[in-house]
Amino acid sequence: MRVAIIPARGGSKRIPRKNIRSFCGKPMIAWSIEAARASGCFDRVIVSTDDSEIAAVAEEHGAEVPFRRPAELADDHTGTVPVMAHAIEWLQESGERCEAVCCLYATAPFVRPEDLRRGRDVLEAADADYAFSVTSYAFPIQRALRINEGGRVAMFHPEYANTRSQDLEEAWHDAGQFYWGRSEAWLSGKPIMTSDAVPVQLPRERVQDIDTLEDWRRAQWLFKAMQAEAGGTQ
After folding, report:
1. What is the SS3 assignment for 200?
2. Residue 54 three-state SS
């Protein structure tokens, strides 16, 4: 069995009620639920939340909310892996056996069903514990700058000051959308970003963290532009 788990706690501080705030006409979490259901990858789409309002919105848009996440797994410091392990343990205690489980973030309106299918296929084809979405940095990280206490600029890696951008190795970062994993890996607490993970590459134009109000505005502009280009569909 394959299951999607969408973590969605109620205590977002920088953007209050972020998981169910309206984003381009729908509660934010609805975009993730709909992509998961449309992908055809999953026997069940489950939202892990501590919040009754989030639970109601999730169920309205087609997800299951068969349990409430305990408070100790719903604070600012709880990582993704223990939340996933809790959900898988609940499934096992209910008699369900999951071969692969995908963590799909509630704030991933750019995720597409075909990306989720590709993640599933990559994990199944690889001798790996995880497969997760990544995208490339727009600028060489070797040329990154810091601003010191005196307000002056310094390079993190001054040895690359005169190296051409095209001669530097391309760097990638977590796209913050989805993480396919084998149940044993989640349950053992194994970190996601290790040599036992494989990448699912996404174009930069479909990746946007949504952690601040500035992020939110940028994401809406980008999303609306993509909808317009696609003729009104995601």
Report:
1. strand
2. helix
Q: In angstroms, rounded to a whole number, what is the distance separating the alpha carbons of residues 95 and 44?
A: 14
Residue 131 φ/ψ region, left for φ over 0, alpha for ψ in the -120 to 50 degree band, beta for the rest: beta
Residues comprising the chain, all counted: 234
Q: What tens digit of pLDDT does each residue of 19-69 get?
A: 999 999 999 999 999 999 999 999 999 999 999 999 999 999 999 999 999
Q: Which of 196, 183, 38, 215 is nearest to 130 (CA)?
A: 196
Rounded-to-integer distance, Cα 22 and Cα 151, Å: 39
Q: How confident is the model at residue 176 (pLDDT cuts 50, 70, 90)?
A: very high
Provide the β-strand partners of residue 23.
Answer: 26
The H helix count followed by the E strand count for the chain is 6, 10
Q: What is the largest CA-CA distance in the chain?
A: 60
pTM for the structure as a whole: 0.93
**Angle at which helices 28-39 and 113-125 pack, to 10 degrees?**
50
pLDDT of residue 221: 96
